Amino acid sequence: MAILLAAQGALLCDRAMAQPAPAESGAFEDVPEGTLDLDDMPDIGLDWPDLDQPTQTLPEAQADTSSTEEAALAEEGAAAPAQEPESEPGTAAEADSSDGAASNAEALAALDPTQPLRYQVRLDGVSEVADPLFYSRFDALSALRQGEGTRASIAQIRRRAQSDEELLGELLRTRGYYESRTRARFGVGGGADPHVRVALNAVPGRRYSLDAVEIFGLEGSTPSGKPLRSFFDVKVGDPADTDAILAATDKLRLSLEEGGYPFADVREPVLTVDHQQRQALLSLNAETGDFLRFGEIRVNEDAPFDARHVAVIGRFSRGEPFRQSEVADLNRAIVATGLVSQVTITPEERGDGEAVDIVVNMTRAPPRTIAGEIGYGTGEGARVEVRWQHRNLIPPEGAVTFRGVLGTQEQSLSAILRRNNLWERDQALNGELSIANVDQPAYDALTAGVAASLERHTNLIFQKEWTWSAGLELRISDERRLFGKSLVPVRRRYVIAALPTSLTHDGSDDLLDPRRGYRLGGRLSPELSLQDGAFGYVRAQIDGSAYIPIGDRLTVAGRVRLGTIVGASADRIAPTRRFYAGGGGSVRGYAFQAIGPRDLNNDPVGGRSLGEISLEARYRFGSMNQFGIVPFIDAGTISSEPLPTVSELRVGAGLGFRYYSNFGPIRVDVGTPLNPQVGDSRIGVYVSLGQAF
Into how many domains does the chain fold? Predict the structure, then answer.
């Protein structure tokens, strides 16, 4: 018997939910035979030539009647009675097999054949040979499982059971058990509402093995000397398992595509089964084609950027062995630019047997966007923001953004240039011109500035383990603040030049919603200030967070932040350059920047050092874990000294709520200060996208 294995046939079900192996006990008697129109067997995509044979019988030469277990299944009603944990009236849990069989037969005969009944289903005899995927496939295709939640007549239940007998036999044959036999047995559960118990009993029998494996077209080796045959890891003596064979075939295709053979053709394997010898022959044909390397990149004429920039985005170089994964990666990276609505990448053989060109066809997306925001917050007041952007004003990928903010506490204008994928992938040059007037409880500042930076960044599509930035910043600021014991605000002008740098290591598993791993980052900014003479100082900050999963639903997350300014006193440092704490991304329960030393008007003045620590338990619930509840506790301190002090530590606690959307968790946190300062509100509410840290 020759069997053509098709990949779609083995993948019987997309659902991979693990099912526990059911108990294997109990006897169920057959419903009296009658003339029933049986439904056709659902097609699972495998062409097994022996499906027209009864599943519980074998050719006489192959039947092993010496097996006690098989003989028991072949005999009508010879199985032991069901052993249920607790007997109930009318069940098949009697001690004597003949009495139990008679009782079951009587109970079944007493049922009204037209009355819709509940029923229960279990599998017996497969726990030693089945895995979670086996059970999930059965559940997905089982006629009994599909209707288990609704009532059905005896005739309907029997038709479904007959269909599932054949299904179970087919599933066993895909695993190499070609002598398997299956039979449905029935029992009655009593009580006020009788129900039918259906046990699908299976005797897997002997598992067939591969007597020969014939591979054609893989006789050679790669340029590195690795035999092509080694890419296919099925060998003589392995079980005749359809899943394993198809998985090995897919692995072979992938290995050839990743190993420099873009035009390899691997045909579907053919399995020939010898029932007399209980063995199988596997035959596979493949054509590898030439070993090829990456050649030139070609793009269409109206593409948003040229082939040179595509080469920068790609992670491969000309002359490297062809890898299909690099082509797929390039496709995703081009889409991530936001400049194309559609992209098609086609490997095209040159004909020289040496290289393959990469042909990229891109359809331009609209480059301009305009967006606006309107909001109100108890700590920020009213706020309106408008943004206009051209994502490719300075090709390639030179985005220009104009941003304006009009609000109760902020009025600002800025122009931002961002050049993405500069010199190499995920590297960007940023430039900004801005003017802003900010009126907050901590300070009142009119600021104009220019800044530039070069950075390696991360994003939602390509989360990076290491990111960094280095830049230059020049600010002119006119700031009003109380100084000393005076109640009269004084304005001072500052000219500040800074060299901010940062380095971050991200070992977490997700950018917006990490569940395991850690993050560690540091910032260092040497600054020169001109105010009552020139003086310098250094701002430094370290951030660390860790995420520990406990089961499938709970994650414990912790965060530590330390900051210091050395080289100048707090009074000489501009208020806008000091450290502050409090708010939704800091210590929840307190207002924005509210923690730390206060002036004579009870307004925060910031400080030279910062210390924060947070701990929260993120518990998810719902049918798809789409909701979450997060109890948290935060603590923070601000000091005028270079090191934070515990004596001024402020603690907040509360409860957060999460909705896990497709683009990240939506966060709502409600906190309260546990040791508030004078003037602190008792409740703080914070709403944002992403976790608190």
Answer: 4
